[in-house]
Amino acid sequence: MNLAMCSSWRQIRVIAGKEFRDRIRNRWVLAVSLVFGVFTLATSYFGAATQGAVGFHGVEALIASLVSLTIYLLPLIALILGFDAIVGERERGTLNLLLSYPVTRVELLLGKYAGLAAALSCATLAGFGLAGIVIAVRAPAADWFQYAGFVVSAVLLGCVFLSLAVCASVFCASRTSASGVAIALWFFFVLVYDLLLLGALVLTGGAALGPLFPLLLMLNPSDVFRILNIFGPGDLRTMYGLLSVFPSGLAVPLFLGPVMLAWIAAPLGLAAWRFNR
Asked: How do residues 225-244 score in pLDDT, each as one tens digit?
């Protein structure tokens, strides 16, 4: 049993390593890192330009701006990265070749996801790390911890949408349909879900949905990411209206972190079930 598990992990590491090296070779990680780095540095310096000031003005305002940017940009990048992970191999005719090797379908799926997640995480850490240098120079140590929490939550958000993309890649029959599903997922979770939730809340007057609202927010990983970034000082908490409907006792990383991990595991588990069939 132990030998089988060791062999399985070895196969997953090999596949993940190849996937990661492929992304490094085509400079995908570098490109995404530059995008995150440029946007983050611009936000940290010009974030207060509308109030007639430039320069670093505190980590609270920086994180509030970066959360909005990250919610729109990072899920889209993750979905584009992973939507053809399996269906692309099938269309190119290389999937059967890969499965002819001594590797199971689950090992192949997990290996490809792990490699893509490593590439996306490296790009995210490198890009946001540039602003981390600015914070390290100009801010107290407490701000470092707060900014590090934001970066970790951003990595989790990217891994969630990458998991959704890989799941779509398994279920779809072509790259075209997989790309359409990926775009639909982005629109639903980033743009549509909260509008539907707020509309339902207004129509019912809050009587029916009010007690369920915190639970419904956790059904959207983008909302979980927002709430994860309100555990800082009071100045940051006032920038999020979600606190008025989400219990402050639950708005902590020890509770919401596992929720994000569940969001990663559930689509992967569904993809593995479908891929085995």
From this structure: 988 887 554 545 555 555 55
